[in-house]
Fold this protein.
Amino acid sequence: MREVMATTGPDFHKDDLATVAHEYSLKGIQSYDGMGVGAVVSFTKTRTNQSKHFAYAGTNMNLSGFQTKVHAEQNALQQALLDFEDDDLGVRVKMNKMVVAVTGDKDYLTCGHCLQITRSVCDYLGCSPRQVDYIAANHKGEDRDTFEFREEKLDDLLSTTYAEW
Ligand SMILES: [Zn+2]
C-alpha cells in the first residue's frame, strides 16, 4: 500500500492533510526555481457498508523549466491509482480532498494541467467533482507555522473535462 494515511474513523481533517503536504513539499527536486510543492489527495473506499479513508501524497520534480516539471498533484494521484483494484473503480472509491502546500513565502496557485488531470481521474473513478475540495494550504503567522486555507470545489475551478468536439 502506498497510502501515507489511512483510517476507519472520521475522514481526515484538512490540517492533517496540509501537514503531510508540507512535508512532501520539502522532498522533491527543485533545481530550477527552488519552489517545492507537496500534494495530498484523500479518498474514501466503501466495502460492504464499511468505509475507510486513505490519503496519498506526491511531490514535484522541478527539473528545467515548466515543460519538464512533474507536478505534485499528478504524482499523488498516480500513487493512488497504483493502489486501486479493478473492482474499486466506479462504485466504491470517492475522491474527497486535494490539499497542496508549497515551500518558501509564496502562496499556492493551482495550474490548469493539474485541474484537468484531477478532474479526469475523478471522472475515471466515477466521482462527482462537485464533492471534491481543492484546497491551497498557505503558510501564515510570524513563524509561518500555521496554515491559511483557500478552498474551492473542483467543479468550480474547472467546470468540465477536456473533450474532443
Ligand atoms: Zn500542476
